[in-house]
Amino acid sequence: MKKITTLLFIMVAFSNLTAADLLVPSQYSTIQAAIDVANTGDVVIVSPGTYFENIDFLGKAILVTSTFHLSQNPLDITNTIINGSQPTDPEFGSCVSFVNGEIEDSILKGFTITGGTGTKTYNPSEDLYFRTGGGILINESSPTIVHNVIRNNEAIAEAGVFGAGGGGIRMGFGVPVIENNVIKNNTGGYAGGIMIAYCEGAVLKNNIIANNTATGSFNGGGGVYVDWEPITLENNTIVGNYSGDRGGGIISTGTTTIIKNCIIYGNEAAVDADQIFKRFGGNAETTYCNIEDGFDGTGSEEGNIDEDPEFINTNNYYLQSSSPCIDAGNADPNFNDIEDPNNPGNALFPAMGGLRNDIGAYGGAGASEMLSVTETFLPTKFSIKASNPYDNSGLHITVAKNTQADIWFYSLLGQPKLLAKEISLTEGNNIIKVEIPTSGLVIVRTVNGHSATTKLFKE
């Protein structure tokens, strides 16, 4: 009898340690409800749908994933949406929060993250509050963020805080894993795409960081903003971002940012340094990168080029077969692309050419075709032009096909105002009459998530 009792005790104990699958919405109506009851090692599996939530991992080492984790179908990413636009408390507007000491085993995978507005966050190094992390907030934690589309989030509201930024992601005081994500069309007062503060040793790989906007606070920084401790950017594609001040692509503040095998191209800044801005003694060590107009930084700058990347389109940023970025990354085998098992000696698509690293998000051993899930953008030119100083005569908006768009105005302090909603734009040039209250940024956002930005001065 004693042996049977002991065996039963061991079986019960073992079952309590076995990870469980928690299904949303069939078992739990919300993602947060599943997280609330999850134990270490559990997997929260979320079926396709839109979930109006602002979730908190609560310090748990769990995997929260869409069915992409099982299917490997990128459509499960675009069809499983965490929309943070309806927070119960506007001070906690991030779509997903990691603020309780989460570790690498705390994993967010396979979602579209959208509609977030950021969370009031304390920065102990400056003894100040900021509104940060429109899409994802990471504070004093080191989670894993993989295979997500993080789009159309913002951190711009400065009421009650010293500043607002990190429209897509804010990571601070930790060493998160940020890999194989699309971070696009987000807006911040500073750090439109991603804010990285005091994260020494963090390595961000194989991300597309595109078409994000910083209105200009703390010098702006449209794509990536690095603060005070060194991190590494490896095999990322950082393109089409805009800063209302400096650093359209990257700002490096008070530290040397290590940049390897990255495309940094087509970014714009209203004042200075379209691609990389060195702030408060900051710098960048760039090797085997394709940087528009080049860059004068620290280190050898070995292998850098300045050539049109030759993207197939601005949907997924695949490289054309003639791209100078193919087989132009670091030649060390440690950086090699994945080999195609059916074509030995050649790279597995979406990498191209031989096994040598391709510059950009599709190069290296961590590349994934998942990045192709980005929504279709307008196939050709999308632009805004207007008289400067602006006399309210109208915006000249050029689009490649018929679409609808919203027009937003952001003051130089980051205060938003909707100028026009769901206006119809026809193929070619459109003149849209709008009035602006002061000097600032005008952003046109189409229904498919594309955006164009211009800075206007009030007459």
Automatic annotation (TrEMBL):
The keyword Chaperone does not apply. Keywords: Signal. SUPFAM superfamilies: Pectin lyase-like. Transmembrane segments: none annotated. Residues 1-19 form the signal peptide. SMART domains: PbH1 (SM00710). This is Putative secreted protein (Por secretion system target). It comes from Marinirhabdus gelatinilytica. The lineage of its organism: Bacteria, Pseudomonadati, Bacteroidota, Flavobacteriia, Flavobacteriales.
